[in-house]
Amino acid sequence: MGTLYYTGQELLEDKKRGKFRGRLSYRDTNNKRRYITRTLNATGKRAANAELAAWRQEKEREHSESLDRSGGISLPVADTPISDYVSQYIDAKERTKAIEPSTISSYRDSLRYIAATFSETRIKDLQPIDAEKWIAELVKEDRSPSTIGKAFRLLKMVLNNAIATGVIDKNPLSLVKPPKRVNKKQGINALDETALAELLDKLSLLELSPVTVAAYIALNTGIRRGEVCGLQWRDIDADNRVIWIRRSIGLGKGGAYIKQPKTDKARDVVLPDTLLEVLEQWQEKQRQTFADNMASLNPNSFILGDALGYYHPDRLSKDWASLTKMLGTRGTEGRRLSFHDLRHTWATLALAHGMDVKTVSSNLGHANAAMTLNVYASADPDAKRRAAGIVECLMRCDQSTNR
């Protein structure tokens, strides 16, 4: 047969489904290793190996015939297997640094679900019915609507790219819808005013530490976990009573890294006097800790970090979970308070006490005020009662005027 195109083969056991899968590897035009997989019919290992060998011979023959038809030229892009095309798309985005490493990592997670079904299907052959069967299979495997939705959106986006580059004429996923997301956590688990006061009382009895200072920052500003971890002392403008949000700590394939805030631009949030007092006390304590480790606290030092760098967002979440378990703090939904719920608490109370939505949106770092309203419009349980009272008052005033 000459030089083999598929340079490797593996037999994979899918224990969850009780089946075997075959995997072949080859090198693309950039000499990068690629894979195609196939679910085998055989139930025994020996028979599965034989079926895998036969499939490999079949794929070698198909490749040889395609080269004969094209005069030795590689397959057209439209004949590329879907999983390969998606993988190449992600690789290109990663090389050009067009998107964040955390997004690349998420794409690669979703690629697994695409490759499991579409490792052999060519881009030009994909039909809406194929996508519907794919989604049905993922639902059958008990994948969450969120997981399915991410994989669906990635594939749809890549196919739109294929249209833009002239590979295909239309997107078959335009006629397909993923399953609706089910909100397992009903409502926003914020703190009401009474619970917030109780939490602040409990925090005041504790020694200042990275996790307690982080809680004070989140409760007073509403900024995100990664943004809290990314704060440096130079971001504190005590004279003008503002905090500058200039960076965030993101999570990617290689671990945590420093990135731009979510909206890719710096913003300022108000620095309340009570928070300033906490930060001043913490700065003195941190300065002593640095000195004990033969280091100097400087404007570029991370507020929650140590002499080696920033406070890892995952560590913050774990430390906060341990603290709330000890304190027994729960939100309006009855669940134990997550660190992100502190952000929800700031936003719901700010809106409930009349802060305009544009200001709230700016503090939160939302792209626009509509996003803020979509998330928090119904978060305040007393909002409807207050609204009804306002309307009733207006109507009574109008009736009194007309008499």
Question: Could you characterize what this model shows?
Answer:
The chain has 403 residues and is mostly helical. The protein has 3 domains: 1-75, no CATH class; 76-182, Orthogonal Bundle (DNA polymerase, domain 1); 193-385, Orthogonal Bundle (hpI Integrase, Chain A), CATH 1.10.443. The chain contains 14 helices and 8 strands. The strands form 3 sheets. Strands 1-2-3 form a 3-stranded antiparallel beta sheet. It has a 3-stranded antiparallel beta sheet with strand order 4-5-8, with no helix packed on it. Strands 6-7 form a two-stranded antiparallel ribbon. The protein is elongated and about 75 Å long. It starts with 5 loop residues before the first strand and ends with a helix.
Write a brief structural summary.
This protein has 403 residues and is mainly alpha-helical. Helix content is 51%, strand content 11%.
Could you describe the largest sheet, including whether it forms a barrel? 3 strands, antiparallel
Q: Give the CATH H-level superfamily of the largest domain.
A: Intergrase catalytic core
Major beta sheet, strand line-up: 1-2-3
Tell me how many strands there are. Answer: 8
CATH fold call of the largest domain: hpI Integrase, Chain A
Quaternary state of the chains: single chain
| Fraction of residues in β-strands | 5-15%
* Class computed from helices, strands and strand pairing: mainly alpha
Number of helices: 14
| Percent helix range | 40-55%
What is the CATH architecture descriptor of the largest domain?
Orthogonal Bundle
Order of helices and strands: EEEHHHHHHHHEEEEEHHHHHH
Radius of gyration from the alpha-carbon trace, in angstroms: 28 Å
Number of domains: 3
Let me know the average pLDDT: 84
Please give the alpha-carbon distance between the first and last residues: 100 Å
Q: Indicate the overall shape.
A: elongated
User: Could you name the ranges where pLDDT drops below 50 across 5 or more consecutive residues?
Assistant: 69-75
CATH class of the largest domain: Mainly Alpha
